[in-house]
User: Which sequence fits this backbone?
């Protein structure tokens, strides 16, 4: 099969007229960029409490700084594949990488809320440039036999960055300083830019695409999802639609999205027609991405959240256990997943992944207050199977079922799913945990009535433990009451996290059902002959 034919079957864009002088450098540049995005997003989220202290920010200012640092990604990310096709990959990657390095150098040196907001917003906008062109460059540059391996690295970076984030934050805090949350990019981003220059040809601006540009569609989709993203990010903190601001952000964003679809149905050259996700396999696969994001919260949000919020541990105390039990097994799971996708059916790999997520989630429902970081070891190993097998398989399956004529449109929707889906799932889980903790606090409180025999006995036991300090009776009573309240709150939080694991279990089961609804992918370089010829235990 010719390269052009391979591209068509895989659902990528047609090969560009200019050949890449050093294809491995081009692929290394975009893969390095994807790792940079994964680590930066994760490190900023984990290190936000330390950043608030370093910058002297209030809790509200820190929360909004997180929004300003992430929402601009979704403003630009859907259009990056089109920008790369129109202006060339070199222009799209090189100059933003240098600007990103400069901003990363300056951020630890500046103070002032307004300055921080502006620089973080610009940094987030540049960060949104680095990932979207990755898949396009991989499929255009490498021979088909290397596509799955390169896509596996792309999928691997998400799980690896999520699980290694606490370790890196701990190392920076203890040995180097919080500034290296930013300064690491001062070193990495220029390397990415140099690799992009070495590996990509000098391409002329495609004035044909530029003349047919759907600027209105790009602006409406990017701005609409950025507003929704900001509303979702702040939703749990401001109690969702009880806040006029959240209602305005989400409502305004939804209105812009509706206007976007109207625009796409009316313009002569639509940039991202809804038809690209209208096919059965692609539509269901997009839903599978969302449910993968939801069930993977079991280790990206629930495990570190319990250890931090309930056990009271710092990132440096939980970093190594999570790295050893969740990151290192990925190094084994990823190559096995590549074998499954290359020689078996991608749907089989998805099934294995969701089953692993379901098993690990059920293990999490056995959670108790005494669990330590190493208590999650077996869960982390099983979760690594879910992360290694599921995401790679669904990416390959979407590409195998996509129309190459709609490559930039497909990329736009993939970026919306990547960013919007992750933020939505995280915010919904945070709200779920908050409400479940409140419910369990109320129910447990019913069994701790004021003046009850068991309550008075518990208060007396706690008071005797504090009596050695020589405090007055009133002080002992106050400390005992506070300690009892904390014990009830801890148990309520444990029960809430158990409910969270139970929720991810059901999400994994729904993911299994969606996989069973997929038909066999059409024949092509990303689909083994046996998988294209017949089903593997699922519907064709």
Assistant:
């Amino acid at each position: 099969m010719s390269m052009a034919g391979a591209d068509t079957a895989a659902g990528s864009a047609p090969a560009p007229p200019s050949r890449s002088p050093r294809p491995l450098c081009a692929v290394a540049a975009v893969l390095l960029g994807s790792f940079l995005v994964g680590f930066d997003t994760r490190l900023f989220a984990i290190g936000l409490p330390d950043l608030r202290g370093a910058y002297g920010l209030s809790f509200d200012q820190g929360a909004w700084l997180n929004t300003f640092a992430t929402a601009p990604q979704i403003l630009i990310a859907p259009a990056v594949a089109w920008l790369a096709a129109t202006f060339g990959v070199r222009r799209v990657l090189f100059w933003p990488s240098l600007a990103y390095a400069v901003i990363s150098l300056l951020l630890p040196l500046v103070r002032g809320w307004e300055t921080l907001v502006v620089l973080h917003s610009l940094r987030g906008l540049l960060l949104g440039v680095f990932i979207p062109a990755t898949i396009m460059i991989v499929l255009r540059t490498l021979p088909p036999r290397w596509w799955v391996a390169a896509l596996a690295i792309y999928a691997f970076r998400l799980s690896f960055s999520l699980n290694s984030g606490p370790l890196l934050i701990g190392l920076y805090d203890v040995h180097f300083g919080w500034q290296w949350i930013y300064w690491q990019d001062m070193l990495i981003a220029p390397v990415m830019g140099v690799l992009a220059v070495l590996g990509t040809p000098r391409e002329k601006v495609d004035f044909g695409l530029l003349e047919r540009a759907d600027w209105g569609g790009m602006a409406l989709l990017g701005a609409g999802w950025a507003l929704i993203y900001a509303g979702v990010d702040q939703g749990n903190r401001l109690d969702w639609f009880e806040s006029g601001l959240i209602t305005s952000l989400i409502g305004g964003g939804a209105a812009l999205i509706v206007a976007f679809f109207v625009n796409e149905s009316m313009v002569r050259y639509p940039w991202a027609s809804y038809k690209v996700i209208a096919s059965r396999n692609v539509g269901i696969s997009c839903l599978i991405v969302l449910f993968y994001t939801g069930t993977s919260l079991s280790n990206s949000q629930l495990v570190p959240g319990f250890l931090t919020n309930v056990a009271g541990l710092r990132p440096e105390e939980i970093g190594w256990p999570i790295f050893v039990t969740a990151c290192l097994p990925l190094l084994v799971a990823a190559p096995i997943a590549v074998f499954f996708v290359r020689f078996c059916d991608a749907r089989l790999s998805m099934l294995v992944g969701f089953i692993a997520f379901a098993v690990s989630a059920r293990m999490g429902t056995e959670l108790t207050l005494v669990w330590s970081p190493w208590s999650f070891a077996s869960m982390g190993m099983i979760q690594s199977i879910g992360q290694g097998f599921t995401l790679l398989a669904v990416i390959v399956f979407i590409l195998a079922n996509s129309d190459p004529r709609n490559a930039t449109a497909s990329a736009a929707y993939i970026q919306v799913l990547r960013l919007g889906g992750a933020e939505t799932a995280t915010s919904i889980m945070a709200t779920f945990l908050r409400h479940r903790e409140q419910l369990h606090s109320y129910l447990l409180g019913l069994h701790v009535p004021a003046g009850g025999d068991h309550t008075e006995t518990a208060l007396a036991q706690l008071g005797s433990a504090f009596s050695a300090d020589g405090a007055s009776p009133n002080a002992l009573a106050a400390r005992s009451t506070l300690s009892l309240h904390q014990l009830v709150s801890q148990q309520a939080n444990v029960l809430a996290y158990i409910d969270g694991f139970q929720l991810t279990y059901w999400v994994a089961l729904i993911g299994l059902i969606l996989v069973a609804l997929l038909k066999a992918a059409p024949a092509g370089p990303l689909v083994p002959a046996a998988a294209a010829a017949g089903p593997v235990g699922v519907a064709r």
Notes: The two ends are 25 Å apart (CA to CA). Residues 1-17, 533-540 have pLDDT under 50 and may be disordered. Residues 473-516 form the longest helix (44 residues).
